Amino acid sequence: MANRRSLHALTRHASAIFSTNPSVQFLTSSLPLPTQKPLETVVHKFSSVSTNPQSAWSGQWLPARHFSSNSGDRDGKDEDEDDDEEDEEDYDSDEAGEYSEDDDDLASSGGSKREYTPEEKEAEAASIGYKVIGPLEKSDRVFKPYEPVFAVVQIGSHQFKVSNGDCIFTERLKFCEVNEKLILNKVLLLGSSNQTIIGRPIVPEAAVHAIVEEHALDAKVLIFKKKRRKNYRRTKGHRQELTKLRIIDIQGIEKPETVDNPKPSKTPGKKPEKVAVAA
Question: What band does 27 get if pLDDT is binned at 50, 70 and 90?
Answer without folding.
Answer: very low
